[in-house]
Amino acid sequence: MSAMRREVPEDSDDDVLDLGTVLPPTVPQVVCLVGRVCAEKLPNIFVVTEVMLKTFNPKGKLTAREWGKGMVLFSFERIDNCDWVLRNQPWHFDGHLFAIKTLISSEQPSLIILRTSSFWTRAHDLSLVYRSEAVIRSIVARVGILELFEKPSMRI
Q1: Over the range 103-127, which residues count as b (16 or more CB within 10 Å of their CB) and which as e?
Q2: 13 pLDDT exceeds 50?
Q3: Cis before 58? omega within 30
Q4: What is the pLDDT of residue 23?
Q5: How many angstroms separate the CA atoms of 130 and 36, rounded?
Q6: Can you tell me the distance from the alpha carbon of 99 to that of 76, in angstroms, rounded to the nearest whole number?
Q7: Structural contact between residues 43 and 92, judged by C-beta atoms closer than 8 angstroms
């Protein structure tokens, strides 16, 4: 299994959003994620929000709202739910990757760019000569960055 980052289209919208109007004062920013569908044409943000809320299905409260540039801000009541969402990536929406990033309290919303997303892939039935890490790195270099390479098992 290999994990890769893939570049996705950049959004040119430069909306500025005040954090004070977005985050409820009782929700600490350490349990917030920002997400964006990685597609040429951005889907309806309200549909994305509803689908992802149902998909994450957390224990405890989870709120989501539009956050400019086609992004959604997710505020988790419990940090273990936030960690679960990050651990279980990649997420997708309507056949497109859904890039997610942890919100750092000092970040300005207008400066966050979600153009990459980690995802894993498995290649089946590769010839033995193509199973080396060097060959996999050269293949992946054409589309992204190899983050992790798991040695293939030699099960028979």
Answers
A1: beeeeebeebebebbbbeeeeeeee
A2: no
A3: no
A4: 53
A5: 34
A6: 17
A7: no
